[in-house]
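Contributing: when you submit paired examples, paste them exactly as shown. First protein:
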Amino acid sequence: MKYHLFLFIIAYIFYFVYYRIHIFIKIPLHSYMVIYMEFSKTSTGETIKRLRKSKKLSQEVLSGLAGIGRSHLAMIENCKKQPNFETIWKIAYALEMKPHELVTEIENYVFNDNV
């Protein structure tokens, strides 16, 4: 008898927690959605190169405006080196953008399948 009562209590707790708690909390659907974006090693360099060419700047000029070495910029554009946040910051301002705008451009490059 005690064993059956114990199982009943466990089953009721499971039922309450599993089914009823969702009714009381009412978790919105969008909180379950996860956007998965695979990191692309080429997206940063190719985006910077595209933006540089669209502003008709050479690597020498952009690297001078950003305060980084031309070879460093070349390695970033050729995807041989990943820039840290400070470098992204410097390049963004050299391209007359805010850092978050440059990051948004990189994200758009990844989301649009490198178009």
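Second protein:
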Amino acid sequence: MSDEILKIVLDKVEKMETKISNAKSMNGGFDKLMMEVEHIKDTQADILDGVRGVKQNLYEPDSGFSVVLRNLSPILRYEMLMFKELNQPLSLQRASALEEESRQGLGRLREDAD
């Protein structure tokens, strides 16, 4: 081989050595990538736990949101009725009747709550 060919080969080898030594993958790049992937997995696990907690709070058969809403439904209907009644002009007789209905209704609601 001639000196010129050896020089070309040596230059190419030096360029390859420089590229390899400067490559992120050879200088801790894969380790950093693995650490970031582990962090993402941990974060996803935390998010999954949070979503499961929300789901449990919504759909738990004994104490979930749907049960609370179902238990509040009669109270809300009663309050809606009272609101409609209160927006109507009242006579003194009708006001007395509403007051009595209110006492009876609250008594029933308290009994249902116990």
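If you have annotations for the second protein, write them as plain sentences, like these:
The mean pLDDT is 79.
The longest helix spans residues 29-59.
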